[in-house]
Automatic annotation (TrEMBL):
Mg(2+) binds at E121, D147. This is Citryl-CoA lyase. Gene3D superfamilies: Phosphoenolpyruvate-binding domains. GO terms for molecular function: lyase activity; magnesium ion binding. GO terms for biological process: oxaloacetate metabolic process. Residues 12-215 form the HpcH/HpaI aldolase/citrate lyase domain. Pfam families: HpcH_HpaI (PF03328). The keyword Glycoprotein does not apply. Substrate binds at R69, E121. Keywords: Lyase, Magnesium, Metal-binding. Its cofactor is Mg(2+).
């Protein structure tokens, strides 16, 4: 893996910043987010698309780093967005990711300079998600819960309605050998309880990061996707018992359990649990 792909794989908090608001770029970069996503798509009106791309190009030209969410393939702006991202070696978030052929073409056109984050947010994308995740150049998948919910006619914050789609992303990512997927957005930016519930639900299903739309969501995301104190204690007890031990606290210990314990201890820890 390249260093940038490692950053994408390990990122827990990914913060969107609108491409037509360049005054927020430096603030987003200093916010503590693991990755900043300059959004040229949904956050930008059609008459501001060109200006947003120019803003992103100017900021990236100064040596700043970000993921660029381009406009969807087939739109009037997509090709220029991709070319700009490739020029600066930026990773690319691809909205409406549902066609592995198109994703492979995007990766090829950047000559491998841009890792892709496939944003799965359509019914077809969910049904094809294994092929999407297995496409060369795709570093990670992300879940577009708001767009998918609109297509399905369900509430975007309904955990039950979208559980099938979420689980498909988790399984497909593991099958393709890429990092676990990134959870979608929580639109209730001032409701800490809703945010914590969304984080806990996504983590329980196997997501290891989350898309954020406001800086005040970052701390909860960093903490929520880090190993808990209880998990760290369990992992240390399992590994401390030695590989020849078959049970710890009455639970069977075998190779998969040992591997899970190692993953927990290798994961970045939240500041309050760091040792």
């Amino acid at each position: 893996m390249t260093a940038l792909r490692n950053r994408i794989a390990a990122a827990r908090s990914l913060l969107f910043v609108p491409g037509d608001q360049p005054d927020r770029f430096d603030k987003a970069a200093a916010s503590g987010a693991d990755l900043v996503i300059i959004d040229l798509e949904d956050a930008v009106a059609a008459n501001n698309k060109e200006r947003a791309r120019e803003n992103a190009a100017a900021w990236l030209a100064l040596g700043n780093r970000a993921v660029v969410r381009i406009n969807a393939p087939g739109t009037p702006w997509s090709e220029a967005d991709l070319a700009m991202a490739a020029e600066h070696g930026s990773s690319v978030m691809v909205p409406k990711a549902e066609d592995p052929v198109i994703l492979a073409e995007l990766a090829a056109r950047t000559a491998g300079r841009c890792d892709l984050v496939a944003l799965v947010e359509t019914a077809l994308g969910v049904e094809r998600v294994h092929e999407v995740c297995a496409t060369s150049g795709v570093a990670r998948a992300a879940f577009g819960n708001v767009d998918l919910a609109a297509q399905l006619g369900v509430a975007h914050d309904d955990h039950t309605a979208l559980a099938y789609a979420r689980q498909r992303l988790v399984v497909a990512s593991a099958a393709a050998g890429i990092a676990p997927p990134i959870e979608g957005v929580t639109t209730a930016v001032r409701d800490a309880d809703v945010l914590r519930a969304d984080i806990a639900h996504g983590r329980r299903l196997g997501f290891t990061g989350k898309l954020c739309i406001h800086p005040n969501q970052l701390a909860a995301v960093a903490e929520g996707f880090a190993p808990s104190a209880r998990e760290l204690e369990w992992a240390r007890a399992v590994l401390g018992a030695g590989e020849s031990v078959t049970t710890v606290d009455g639970h069977m210990i075998d190779k998969p359990v040992l591997e899970r314990a190692r993953r927990i201890l290798a994961a970045p820890q939240a500041p309050h649990t760091a040792t």
